[in-house]
């Protein structure tokens, strides 16, 4: 039975952590993608979009939630789980984290599904079909007081820059990219869901689950049906600034240079300052 709360997840991670047997209970993506983990995992603490608002506010003092109590609780727990990860976890991104899982060294992995889609490929995976699957993220009941989707689907977003000189041509190209034929090709080649969610109901989704040896596409369809599936963050240019700052500042807490609260206070202040520079 998968853990339903982060307390249960911690207990399971601790149980499976047996360094003498080269076995560990947990892995995430703190190295190259801690900003992504912040976006995706903090939702389970009732904190959408890293606490960054559409008004481009980050700090609690300025109307955001990026350094709120729930954000600090998420980062504190996230850092605490490091003790149940394999050596070198601090520098691992999505490929390295997925590699540890496919090697059979880690019991539970919080990684992107396309990174572990090679479960049935014996040249890169020691796992066999049926030995691993995807499931719901745990939640923190103290902060999850209302419904927030918790299953992230990296479906991609097609946007047209406001400064584009050829908006009509860009729109036509976006239509082509999002067509069922191209999206089916993308889904098949990337081993993950795509922008056109209707393909989750196609025979291709079932065929890929059989080929890859797990229940990913059926699970994502269930998440969509239940209103639990959400996609990339709001398509605003400033989102890149938030991502970059989070990836530069949050690792300080992960390696113990500062406390989670200090890291989030610094991040929220830096984001607010950057937004002010940009005219917000």
Question: Could you please describe the fold and organization of this structure?
Answer:
With 280 residues, the protein is mainly alpha-helical. The protein folds into two domains: 6-148 and 234-277, D-Maltodextrin-Binding Protein, domain 2, CATH 3.40.190; 155-230, no CATH class. 42% of the residues lie in helices and 4% in strands. The protein contains eleven helices and four strands. The strands form two sheets. A two-stranded parallel ribbon has the order 1-2. Helix 9 runs antiparallel to helix 11 (260-277).
List keywords for this structure.
mainly alpha, 2 domains, 280 residues, two-stranded parallel ribbon
How would the blueprint of this fold be written?
Layout: H1 6-16, E1 24-27, H2 30-41, H3 69-80, H4 94-102, E2 106-109, E3 151-152, H5 167-177, H6 180-190, H7 203-212, H8 216-225, E4 229-230, H9 239-249, H10 251-254, H11 260-277
Parallel strand pairs: 1-2, 3-4
Helix pairs in contact: 2-9, 9-11
